[in-house]
Give the backbone structure.
Amino acid sequence: MVEEVGKYSDVYKSWQQHFFSFNLADRENRRPGLRKPQLAALYASLGHLVMSPSTTATIVMPTGTGKTDTILSLLIAGRLARTLVLVPSDALRSQLINKCNLEKLREIGAISENVLNPVVMAVRKGMTIEEVQQVAEANVVVATPQALQRFTSDALQALADLCSHLIIDEAHHVAAMTWDRVKSAFKNKPRLQFTATPFREDNQALEGTIIYNYPLKEAQNDGYFKAIEFHPVREYNLELADQVVADKAVELLRSDRKQGFNHLLMVRARSQKRAEALFELYKEHEDLTPILIHSKVLGRAKLMSDIVEKKHKIIVCVDMLGEGFDLPELKIAAIHDQHRSPAVTLQFIGRLTRVDQALGDAKFVSNIANQKMDYQMAALYKESADWSAVIRDVSNEKIDREIKKEAFTEQFLNDPDSDEILGLNPNPKISAVAFHVERDKWRPKKAQYFSQKREQLQFLSINDEQDTVIMVTRRDTPVGWAQTSAITDTNWILYLAYYHKPDKTLFIHSSGDEAQLSRFLNLITNDARRINGEPTFRTLHDIKLLKLQNVGLSRARKDLRFTMHVGRDINAVINEIQNGTARKSNIFATGFENGKSTTVGCSHKGKIWEMNSESIIYWIEWCKRVSLKINNSSILSSDVLKDVMRSEKIEGRWPNGLFYADWPESIAIENEQKISLSYNAEAFNLLDIVLGKPKLTDDQTLSVPVTAAVPDGDRHLPDITIRLLNDSYKVSCPGVKIILAEEKSLEQYLDAEPLVMMAVDGSFVEGNYRSYSPNSLDLKLPTELIEQWNWGKTPIHSESMTAARNLETVQGFTFSKIQSDYSFIFNDDGAGEIADLVAIRESRDAIHVDLYHCKYCPKKEGVAQPGARVEDVYEVCGQASRSVKWLHTHEKFFDRLMFRYQQSLPKGFQRILKGDPKDLELLRNKCHDHEMIFKFVIVQPAISAAKISADQLAVLGTSYTYIKSVSAADVKVITSP
């Protein structure tokens, strides 16, 4: 409905006839006016509307700096004819409508009494095209995204046609899909979005150039925020942590109220269930009238009214009390569940830091011993963190990241199509054809002359660096089933060109066919020489455990020119490639490069690709990496396939020497914590499951023990039994289910995704196939990697220190031997361990992590005698090989140690042998900008260095080769003399 203030034309006429006063407030001299950020944002917005009215602009103003009044000032100072203001919630819609009485602007002298209030229309539901015509009576239309979603496309377009401008408040709340629909309707009309945090809550980029950013540091310096006090508590026992936080928060509340401040305490929980549990801790403070409120609480409206009237001094809620809720007395926050998003954290803190002379400083309480948030936010949760400074820095860093994103975009802003192209968020398949092109033959600007009969140029953008071209065309072709030109198939083609100046190499990508790519190339270059043949296969260089997924071969036979090989039959053609009886046509492979999983494809004709779709920025960086290889003449493509993995079917019987089993390759370490096994109504996280050494029951039957770590010890689950069939295999594991996105039997899952097992000769078994690299079979451990220790009187038949910290054990002796070499040592012994001992030291730019895997020497006839028994190295080598998965997990590595530490405390098991829990927190924070260098140490006193056998060296060599291949990390073996 329309608010009865005056007629639209009378209001608009008053805005045009009366000047807006751009006076800056002077608090020292008590002169009223606009705040500094309001005035600056207003100038920036008005300038943008003059210079670039058809592009989307973003104005960043921290919560509490007067964003709403800035929007209202813009309406009048800019003399905006009719504006649609989009707000994220009903509460903010009501708040904005109430502020349209312009009371604040009159109070500070920005407008005179003769300026009429706008006629405001609130859109609360979908409207028909006819109903939209009512908008003509309003100067300001206020809507939520939910309301606009109920509009038909035609009705939304009718609304956009009637409005002159679009303003979005709290823009980070508007989902990308909704924004795209509204933006499309308001195409070529001025679009301004205001936000405190220019990054979306749906993790998609917030579109629009940042034309004004008021840094939080300035907002603090200018006095728009009260100082922020952080009161940390440190409790690693999770069973006690909530009580410790609650006690501290209530203590602060009572202290503030005793000083005369009418402060209130907000208790933040992540869920309704958590809020209800926390309320039990706070309700004992009856004099402070605690209240629990969330969406399912009965009588919520009455409770909210009571909260506003300050009848409750402690408010337990889920997240916050809703957009638009503003209660200055909320000055203390108990953060039991920390936010992980900087955007939400900044917004939350902004609620408690509004300036009010009658109130004290904002105070936050949280447990700093249980960090699980974004590493940028982790800086908040340090012992002596200055929250005012940290929040400022985090805000600036996040905003700087958005501005840097724009830096790439802005390289293309000198042409009219860049906004359209980049607004499509191109995510091309990572592929290209490379050409040698002299610098003076590279002519990107000629792309504007693209012309084809059935393919029209739609968008073209060339960056200022003149090294990248992005082009989009539209191609109409007749449909195959009709002989008419009345209907056509329409395809949109993306073209990319990147010129790498150091190597004079041009990379071309086209989502179309080879002919389209060639036409594009000939348009923007002269005398380009395609890089094809053997140089393209250099892209396979230095990839470890290289597996060929498919291979195409060109042959010299008249009756057979080309053959394609996939899966297991690749093994048969590798020798043909190496001896020259067949020529490589195309190869696609997987493997490890620089210790990370990778894919690479290459063809004799020159196409190079990666099985991936990514941003254009990523595509350019990929081109740079590829250029280093294909232009390196010292790489011989004939050598690339020497280490490629062969594969052969297992027939008749399982191979001997299997000593290690692990989950399928499809389960990466970062997914293990999200997956569980269930058995007899109990669930076990996959990280707490240990697969034992595979055992041959008979020639066709393998059995893999399964053990789960539980608080009261170890739980043995049914073995995973694998039966070898004539041309397949069958898994049995009765009663055990795996819980991923949905629950299914473990047998069914492993039938499709086989376990990975390693044999002592260096080969791998997956399902009923064995894979190996000829150059990596039966490699022995280099003897220079063996270090002898004199174990003295240590009973080497006893392995673990246990919670008693028994140093008269293999693990205890190892700790005593190494403790002076490290600043932090962690006892991770037990099912689900990373290693028995995790030892860490720091250098200037690196974190050195040494994983010690300890094993005991079994007694034979009552005596623990070191020797040459191969069975003594199976288990410890399997543990070392398994721990490689933790190499690139960064903060998850330290999260796991912290989790193990906290889980053990209630049992009286202190896992930190040297150092402090705070060290784990600091290391977790540092791991993002420090290199993590791992080393693997196998400690087995059962091996006698003097008697070590070829079989022992073979098993140790297999683990060593595997670890080096996938991680490039160092390996050392500790033995007895």
Summary: The chain has six domains: 8-214, 223-401, 418-530, 535-644, 647-776, 783-976. The two ends are 91 Å apart (CA to CA). DSSP finds 28 helices and 47 strands in the chain.
